[in-house]
Amino acid sequence: MRNRRKKQTISPRTGQPKQGHQGEGGGRPRFEIDYDSVKKLAGIQCTQAEIAAWLGCSVDTLLRDEKFCEIYKSGIENGRMSLRRHQWRALEDGNTTMLVWLGKQYLGQREKNELTGADGKDLVITWLPPQ
Question: Out of 5, 57, 98, 107, which could bridge 90 as a Cys pair, Cβ 3.0 to 4.6 Å?
Answer without folding.
Answer: 98
